[in-house]
Amino acid sequence: MAEQQQKYYVPASSPWPIVGAIGLGLIAFGAGHAVIDMSKEQSGFGMNVLFAGIAVILVMLFGWFRDQINESMQGLYSDQLGNSYRQGMSWFIFSEVMFFAAFFGALFYARVIAVEWLGGASNNAMTNEVLWPDFSAMWPLTETPGGTTTQAMGWAGLPLYNTILLVLSSVTCHFAHVGLEKNKRGQLKVMLGITIVLGLIFLYLQGAEYVHAYNDLGLKLDSGVYGNTFYMLTGFHGMHVTLGTIMLIVMFLRVLKGHFTPESHFAFQATSWYWHFVDVVWVCLFFVVYVF
Amino acid sequence: MSTAGEAIQDHDHDHEHHDHKATGVTRWLFTTNHKDIGSLYLWFSFIMFLVGGAMAMVIRAELFQPGLQLVDPHFFNQMTTVHGLIMVFGAVMPAFTGLANWMIPMMIGAPDMALPRMNNWSFWILPFAFAILLGSLFMEGGGPAFGWTFYAPLSTTYSSDSTALFVFSVHIMGISSIMGAINVIVTIMNMRAPGMSYMKMPLFVWTWFITAFLLIAVMPVLAGAVTMVLTDKYFGTSFFDAAGGGDPVMFQHIFWFFGHPEVYIMILPSFGIISAIIPAFTRKPLFGYASMVYATAAIAVLSFLVWAHHMFTTGMPVFAELFFMYCTMLIAVPTGVKIFNWVATMWRGSMTFETPMLFALAFVILFTIGGFSGLMLAITPVDFQYHDTYFVVAHFHYVLVTGAIFSIMAAAYYWLPKWTGNMYDETLAKWHFWLSLISVNVLFFPMHFAGLAGMPRRIPDYALQFADINQIVSIGGFAFGLTQLMFLWIVIKCCRGGEKALAKPWDGAEGLEWTVPSPAPYHTFETPPEIK
């Protein structure tokens, strides 16, 4: 703190936030109407508005990051601003952790409390006796109290391969970062490239796993709380991996253009943190959703 | 820019040629200036306060007499729901964010918020969120009618078609709050002027710092909750449906894990405001600064351990009810520390009673009433009696209206001279205060008795014996609502002119914000000030 006697840098005003606000507003309005249209099995403007919103957001992201990169390359940013970015990114990741915590919490509650109580545990013998006499508690919940049946997803096979892939990608991502810091651009490019490939393979296998679950196991989003938590957790995680992979690809393109120095590479660092974060979430998910 | 100025330190001379602000509407759309964005937040929150207030007027008009007079029950439910959502997410939270934007950079000697463009984004998504929410009221089947707590299955099985719009608008409000909170945290951690150590920060900065951590911890959980409501309603999941192995009680756990810290999100910044105003008008430093900081942190930590006190009647194992009861009562300790410190600050002070101080004093007394009724509600066996009655309505309106809203008004009067460069009309402001004080108590105090006598909340009709109390309450409500138009007029009048304000219009005020001219220059500290 004490040595920051430099003049503060305040970014100039920018049109991108308001463009982003319009985009986000269109997405929310469009997605809401799209869901309502879908539930009524009618066609409406919802989907169109949603896609328009996504298009606006893409334009915003492109423009905002372009301005940001240009300003950064001109050396406008002070160390203090770099710190702000890093701290901002880390607290953003913390809020993401809390988002996943809501779904992990739901899984925990359903498994340890809700299903057990429906099966008559604690002082709920009459709940079971009166409401669901044919139901006995189990996990994975392959037969719901309402009678929906499904098969459980094992942990061996695809999920295990995916775990290995993603943990490996975290390691390669780390060595890419080390390469950048030691100014070994070759190592950076190779390791970053491998990380991206591992991420893409993960996404492909995750898709294959969904097909297997849907077609062979009859495990669907609506097959009771086991299917709900399975798809919501892996689904939101998959969306984060997709986003992370896109970020990694952008970083790769920037590296090819010669961006980043060993001292100044916030965007790369943020992407790498994000990637480690999705890996950690996956490891938790692998044990909680698949193994136990 | 520098109209009147005494006690201006030499680092902030000659701001004029740096003040290149854009003109016209693009100034407000593209701005990265914390003062502009703060003003946008404050005006937005004021508009939402009036919109939500209008809905409260509909509620009180319907409840003026027993029986169904003006609106049908479904519309009444939409009014209670949207009134709650708007006041929580549209009025109180943006008002605090606006105050944070205006004051935190000035208080810590920073030029602006740390992430100014994100700051602009986090404001401008709010109008879209509330446009979507309010728009859903006009859809076929109506808007959200399940209470602001949107308990499943009311929000899933039994809700109107437009629920998806409610869900996505809450998502946007959450994104806005999270971005705003990250900005506050980063600004405070990273932008303090040299010498501004953590334990020298004004309490408003401290309380907002802690509030921001609460926000980034619980707003994502709210996002998770609304997402599960969305999928339960539209995509066949059964998180909150026993037939699929879920549980409606799980909704309440997830919601209140967000909801209880949310309560403190709406009161901790108030504590900071009151801790600035009372010393200023008592002409004494705040009593027990460090204990105030620790008490705030203690309240924040405890807020994560008390959520199920909202669910005593839902059904929980006895040990859980006891645990949540004792943790809840424990919160009275750090809160008591705060009340004690404010009173001790006033002890033997040379007090004067300008409008900010009047609101602050009313806050201390009336918030304490709300706190005590909260303690009553914390006692599990007693809560069985009070749950879902008007006693609860009285309780949370005492902490939110005479607590949060009164502190926001105190803050507005306290800092309006700094914001506008003009003094507000003290006579009108005193009228505003006294009319508000009397009407708000006519409005909310009798609700305690209605609740204790068994009147349920969120019902458009009631038994005949509650008629007198409800008429009194409604008269208080209309009076309080009308009085706030006076506040609008006072603020507009102050913005347009008035007696010029000194750089430090209050004798006893302390802090960096009073070292710069009034109105504060567009960019306050371009080079860091020295902190002694």
Structure overview:
Chain B: It catalyses: 4 Fe(II)-[cytochrome c] + O2 + 8 H(+)(in) = 4 Fe(III)-[cytochrome c] + 2 H2O + 4 H(+)(out). The complex is a heterodimer of chains A (about 290) and B (about 525). Helix content of chain A is about 75%, strand content about 0%. Chain A is an all-alpha fold and about 290 residues long. In chain A, helix 5 (about 160-180) runs antiparallel to helix 8. Residues about 1-5 of chain A have low confidence and may be disordered. Chain B has one domain (about 35-190, about 200-240, about 255-515): Cytochrome C Oxidase, Chain A, CATH 1.20.210. Chain B is globular and about 65 Å long. Residues about 1-20 of chain B have low confidence and may be disordered. At the A-B interface, helix 1, helix 3 and helix 7 of A face helix 1, helix 4, helix 5, helix 6 and helix 7 of B.
What coarse outline of chain A follows from CA principal-axis ratios? globular
User: H/E element string of chain A?
Assistant: HHHHHHHH
Name of the CATH first level of chain B? Mainly Alpha
* Assembly state of the chains shown: heterodimer
Mean pLDDT of chain A: 92
What would the CATH topology of the largest domain in chain A be?
Four Helix Bundle (Hemerythrin (Met), subunit A)
Number of strands of chain B: 0
**Content of β-strand of chain B:** under 5%
Task: Name the shape of chain B in a single word.
Answer: globular
Level-2 CATH architecture of chain B: Up-down Bundle
Low-confidence stretches of chain B: 1-18
The CA-CA distance between the termini of chain B, in Å, is 26 Å
Quickly give the CATH architecture of the largest domain in chain A. Answer: Up-down Bundle
- Rounded Rg of chain B: 23 Å
Which structural class best describes the helix and strand composition of chain A? mainly alpha
How large is the share of residues in beta strands of chain A? under 5%
Rg of chain A, Cα atoms, Å: 23 Å
CATH homology superfamily of the largest domain in chain A: Cytochrome c oxidase, subunit III, four-helix bundle
Instruction: Please count the beta strands of chain A (DSSP E, at least 2 residues each).
Output: 0
